[in-house]
Specification:
Structural class: alpha/beta
Bound molecules: adenosine-5'-triphosphate, magnesium ion
Radius of gyration: 23 Å
Distance between the termini: 24 Å
Order of helices and strands: HEHEHHEHEHEHHHHHHEHHEEH
CATH superfamily of the largest domain: P-loop containing nucleotide triphosphate hydrolases
CATH topology of the largest domain: Rossmann fold
Shape: globular
Number of helices: 15
Amino acid sequence: MSPHQSVFKDEAKLDINYIPQTLPHREREQRLLMEFFSYIIRCPERMAQRVIITGDVGTGKTVLAQHFGENLTSEANKRGIKFRYAHVNCREFRGSLLPIIHHAITVFRPQFPARGYSAENILTNLMQVLDEENAFLVLALDEFDTLVENEGSDAIYKLTRLQEMRQGKPQRLSFIFIMRGLKSLELLDESAKSTLQRSLISLERYNKAQLVDILADRVGLAFELGAVEEDVVDLVAELAFSETGNARFGIELLWRAGKYADAQDADRVEPECVRMAVSNIIPGTKRSDLTGLGIHEKMFLLGIARFFKENEQAYASLSDVEKSYQIVCEEFNLKPNGHTQLWNYAQFLSSLGILKTEVSMAKGRSTHVSLLSIPAVKLEKELSFSLQEEKRNM
Ligand SMILES: Nc1ncnc2c1ncn2[C@@H]1O[C@H](COP(=O)(O)OP(=O)(O)OP(=O)(O)O)[C@@H](O)[C@H]1O
Ligand SMILES: [Mg+2]
């Protein structure tokens, strides 16, 4: 049998963590961002910068900041300045200031102990490390709203005033705050808000023609020559455009359509592969949310999806879904985790907005879970798909 040919040349180019060398239709914003920071590169000790980037889902906020981070660091290196860019997704740290700042410190001190600090003294530590290293940091706080919602005004105020509190010392810490909209800032009191209000870059949704360019670029990097024809790119762009101009949706769709083509041993991605792929994407949820989960979290969620698929009820007790989870573990030949761990998973999945958890007072305290906007059938398909992939790579 001849080895299976894939339509992909380099699948990794469709990965959500991949940062492309060029960002079509974000040239203006890239220049603007560089402009905001150009003074700092020239006279690093004199000034710090704060920029807010906003835009809808999949409009390129994260990739714009990361791309800029790479440019900035190399530009500064050329000038012999120790500039670092740290990109932290606040949601991954559940919006908690301490681990976020700890993460920033580890950019310079990988072994820096994680425990034993108050929020205040970890901030002092960060500045101390920067002084000792004679370094400058641009801290990009992605999904910043989770930090605002979780920590509130005090923490934001402390964080953003850090620099001003160091009268007479070099300015070392700049920020890029990334969020979908400015609404969450309304939660803050006036003084905290005023420390944030600086330069704003707001990203418009992509139109269809722009999505075609972005996707065509990615096709060239990720697929074999001729594997994805123009009309297919057009179809994917159309679908991504109707999903609020979301480039991520388009890229995921390309990847998935390619998977369908490979599964059929086809040497081209036909429009039908795209249609199959789109019918199995969960609207409103990022694949990255699901792929970012640990294997037990996925198996737990799969257990939940199956439970709700088989039972016509809106809520399930934790012990009900625990049983389905144990069956999933058997299938994958893994030892199930205990009740407390599952409770933690449920809390985490609920912080991601996938589940809702509630404590019921009837018949003693017990935790109940329900699925929010994702149909159980789709979630099941999605997770089985992802777990099979994972198993294959194990
Ligand atoms: N102009 C562009 N050129 C090339 N790729 C792009 C462009 N804009 C977005 N992308 C790609 O689209 C995907 C989504 O972009 P990104 O993750 O930056 O969106 P986002 O605005 O941060 O979305 P969210 O609000 O959901 O976090 C990524 O894979 C990114 O590489
Ligand atoms: Mg993002």
